[in-house]
Amino acid sequence: xxxxxxxxxxxxxxxxxxxxxxxxxxxxxxxxxxxxxxxxxxxxxxxxxxxxxxxxxxxxxxxxxxxxxxxxxxxxxxxxxxxxxxxxxxxxxxxxxxxxxxxxxxxxxxxxxxxxxxxxxxxxxxxxxxxxxxxxxxxxxxxxxxxxxxxxxxxxxxxxxxxxxxxxxxxxxxxxxxxxxxxxxxxxxxxxxxxxxxxxxxxxxxxxx
Amino acid sequence: xxxxxxxxxxxxxxxxxxxxxxxxxxxxxxxxxxxxxxxxxxxxxxxxxxxxxxxxxxxxxxxxxxxxxxxxxxxxxxxxxxxxxxxxxxxxxxxxxxxxxxxxxxxxxxxxxxxxxxxxxxxxxxxxxxxxxxxxxxxxxxxxxxxxxxxxxxxxxxxxxxxxxxxxxxxxxxxxxxxxxxxxxxxxxxxxxxxxxxxxxxxxxxxxxxxxxxxxxxxxxxxxxxxxxxxxxxxxxxxxxxxxxxxxx
Lengths: 209, 249
What we know:
The complex is a heterodimer. Chain A is mostly helical. Chain A has one domain: Orthogonal Bundle (MetI-like fold).
């Protein structure tokens, strides 16, 4: 299937944006700066409160009208919508994991005279990231599922080609959709495996209360 | 904000979109109830004492869960009518209920499982010792303890499904997104209708997520006494904390 490349590239692009957005928003959520904190919680609530498909259509149809500005291409629209949406969900994972690191670790690093930055980078994050792994795997599967939506804004991904083939030959519809589903499942398999592996890793070397 | 945003269009399209709200909310409820019931089917199938069936059911669940609901929806809508043996044409609304319902039933089955596993082993033993029938054991002992702690998680899935229901617009169910898109196609004004749809979703889902958070706190204090949740395996507890508020598509 020729659509596989597009699906994978959208997945990779949106995953990168989502991870970056998640860490920025997650860390701002625990920041003591009230302004940063509020901005990130508005971002999180807006993107989690509305559905992805609506955000996708809004970015696709409304942004060009609103600002007379194109988001580059359909690829960018899809990647930005999926990335920001899942970034909002993942930021809660980031925040939750950082909060779940035992308080004693923070106290110990203060006692060792580490700066705030050192504390986060050397002590808290290495432990928190381990805890995040299974959830990140889960959400990456979700993102993979969400990439199927980009066919609705005219991108030629797996589902788009599946639909084209279905409309040329209706009788093959069951077979075509089964192939599409199996392709998606094969894409998901590494992440399912990663999630299971991540669960084992996440338990090691973490001081959580 | 540019001059492209017109309040007249906003006002004109608002009542039209609002007409779709009934269908969106109705579809959400229908999908949710279907998923709640179908979740029990998965649980039942997974408890059949046959390793092959359990293995098969686990993989089928995994398959449904990790493939896009949109494709599943298309499968039910386009492929079922032309299947040689089944060959039934289903109206879009029922399709959406089946598609989204089955997709989320795999998640809900997983939630039920964590609830059932959290029931203390002594309770199972006691019901055997008291000579309860299998039906009574489930009806009177296990389920009343297993299900209430999972209510907040189920509530979260309700909100998630509410946000997922606009997918049904792709097969022609007249929800709010469908209304907005058809209005946009007629008048070539997508900006205002789509903004309205976004606002409606935000207005409905944000308060309900707060409501569920409150419910969760309330239930937690009630069930902590029994320490039911603490006996759940680590995975389920972490799931509760992290997925607690909201979990996605």
